Amino acid sequence: MSLWIPITVTAAFLQNLRSTLQKHLKGHLSTTGATFVRFGFGLPFALLYCAILFGPMGFDLPGLSLRFAVWLIVGALAQIAATFLLVHLFSFRNFVVGNAYSRTEPMQTALFAIVLFGAEFTAGAVVSICIAVLGVMLISVAQTSITLRNVFVSIGSRTALIGLGSGTLFGLAAIGFQTAARSIASDVFFVQAATTLLIGIAFQTGVMLAYIALRERDQFAKMRAAWKPALAVGFVGATATFGWFTAFTLQQAALVKVVAQVEMLFSFGSSLFFFKEKINRTEVAGCLLIIGSILCLLMFA
Hints:
Low-confidence stretches: none
Largest sheet: none
Order of helices and strands: HHHHHHHHHHHHHHH
Shape: globular
Strand content: under 5%
Helix content: over 70%
Number of helices: 15
């Protein structure tokens, strides 16, 4: 098995855990504050990872370039904007359709790779991407009376467009971070990932700190009061991102995003086994499609 696959699965598990912890924080912080936590409280851990790599482990500091800076900024800003759109989406009563469209991220990541860099994908990879997108969209609408047909028909609705925009920006973020990481002058892939992680989180922290200082200063006191769960979010989030960036240095971002859909299975499993929630046929079908997409990727891509 290729190394990037278990790294991606681990990152997906940690991201699901981070999302669960962030939902707890949402009761104490605003949307902006809860979004900031993943960056600001993850920064100390990104510093720690780099300190270990460039200190006791003895790796050399890598060389950086203008290409790195440009694509890092693109990835960082796209990720912030995508997160805001996704959070904004949940303020709509009919957010389900939009959420389903946001799950087209793997497909949009592949399109960015093709348009911007002329990337080529095998027929198996294309099929895997399409199956994965269909699977997560099914799960997204499974708990409502909305059918998958209605999701496609409602493509011009406001929530659908916000969802598509979120998926587009997440796809652009993946391509931006991957390009930035691969442009680092180092032959060690986890040095590339850790460096991208540290500089990316530092930049995002600065951007969001400036925004909060201008618009939501009350969040600083609330974050101090909730520092323990916020620190947990920061640790899990930074570690998950380290995993994503490591996988990006080893494989096409779009294919990483296909395997990353196992996060939906982790979330689904939590609902089933820990919260004892009932499942329906649509959810089962969606899970089977995600599993099928990953198997297709492993066998034919």
